[in-house]
Amino acid sequence: MTASAILPSVKRFRHPFLMAWMRACWCSLIQRLMAIRLLLSLGRRLTIPSVLGAAPAPFRGHSAMVLGEERLLVLKQNSSPDDCAWFLEFNTPFIKEQRKKLGVEVVAWSKGVEGDCLKPIVISGPSGVGKGTLISRLMKEFPSTFGFSVSHTTRSPREKEKDGIHYHFTQKNAMEKDITDGKFLEHASVHGNLYGTSIKAVEAVMDEGKRCILDIDVQGAKSVRASSIEAIFIFICPPSFEELEKRLRSRGTESEEQIQKRLRNARAELEEGKTSGIFDHLLVNDEFESCYADFKKLLCLEGLNAKKIEEITSHSASKEDGKILIYCGATEAGKRPSSIGGAPGPTTGMKIRPTVAPGVKEL
Ligand SMILES: Nc1ncnc2c1ncn2[C@@H]1O[C@H](COP(=O)(O)OP(=O)(O)OP(=O)(O)O)[C@@H](O)[C@H]1O
Ligand SMILES: Nc1nc2c(ncn2[C@@H]2O[C@H](COP(=O)(O)O)[C@@H](O)[C@H]2O)c(=O)[nH]1
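^ inputs. structure came back:
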C-alpha cells in the first residue's frame, strides 16, 4: 500500500511538504500514522502540493531529516550509493519561484550526488557553427572525463542519428507532459521543434562521475543560467556569416527551407550570444584545430579554478546497512550551504562514507 492510498482520508488536513513526502515515499504504516497525527494536530486547512522533478523509484524504508527551512533529506535504505540520498525541496529559491509562476503549492525532488563534481559545461552557438564537432572530439579524447547530456527533441532523426545516443527522439505530447511534471531542467522551441534537457540526462552523466556537457541553444542556456546550477557557459561563433552558411549547407542534413530558417535564427542568436552577458567565454571556430586547442585550454583552466566545496561543520545523518551519509551543512551563519545546485537539477557535494556502526556522526 502506498502513502497515496491513505490520502483521501486526510484531505481536509493538508500540509505541502508532509503530504508530498507521504505520497512520494513508501513509508511504513507507523510512519504514516505518525504523519497523520501530526497533520491532525496542525488543525488548519493546508494544500496538497504538485511534486516536480524526477522522483526516486518507489522504495521501502528510509530515514529523513529536515534541513533548515528549505528541504528534507531522505536516505533510502538498501540502495546503491549513487541512489541513496534525495532532497525533497519545499521552500528553496527554486520552489518559491515555481510557486509564484504556477500559482500552486509545489515541492521538488533533487537527487544527492556524491563528490565535488566539476561544473557542467554549457555550449551554445548558431546551428552549423561546429558545437557537435568540438564536443565529439573532446569526448573521443577524454572518454572517462566528460559525458554528454543526451537531450530530448521532437524533430525527426537524421540518417546517422541513434535514439538515446544523439537525442531521445520523442513526441510533442509526451515531452510537454514531462515538462509539466517538472522532469526537465530546461526546454525551448528551436527552429520549429521542441528540445530539452531532462534532469535524468544530467544525472546519468553525474552518476558515472563525469563532467557533464550540454549542447543547447541560447534560450536553454539562459534558463540554466537562471537556475541554481553552477555551470560554465561557452558560446561558439563562426568566423563569418558566409562561412556559417557554407558549413550548414555542406553538412547536408537540412532542407533548403530549414537552412533558411536556421540562418535567420542565427543572426539573433549571434547577437544575443555576444551581448547578453550569459556566456563566460566566446570562442571563434575558424580553423578547427586551433579552436579545439583553445577549447581544451579553457576547460583545463576552469577545472583548476573550479570552486572547491567549503569545509563542512553542521548537519550529519545516519543510514542503515553500515553506511553513514554526511550532509554538507552551512559553514558559517549567513553563508550558502556547501552542497551545490538543487532542484530542478541534482544536489552535488554529498559525502558518503562507510563506517563500522550506523549512527549519527559529527565531522
Ligand atoms: N572549424 C571548422 N571548419 C570547417 N568546417 C567545420 C568546422 N567545424 C565544424 N565544421 C563542419 O561544419 C558542419 C557543422 O558542424 P556541427 O554539426 O558540429 O555544427 P553544430 O554547431 O553542432 O550544429 P547544430 O547546432 O545544427 O547541431 C559539419 O559538417 C562540420 O564538419
Ligand atoms: N534548449 C535546448 N536546445 C537544444 C537542446 N538540444 C539541442 N539543442 C539545440 O538545438 C539546435 C538544433 O539542434 P539540431 O541537432 O537539430 O541541429 C542546436 O542549436 C542545439 O544546440 C536542448 O536540450 N535544449
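Residues 121-299 form a domain with the Rossmann fold fold (CATH 3.40.50.300). The pocket of LQESDW3C (ligand 2) is lined by residues 127, 151, 155, 186, 188, 190-191, 195-197, 215-217, 219-220 (CB under 6 Å).
thumbs up if we can close this ticket
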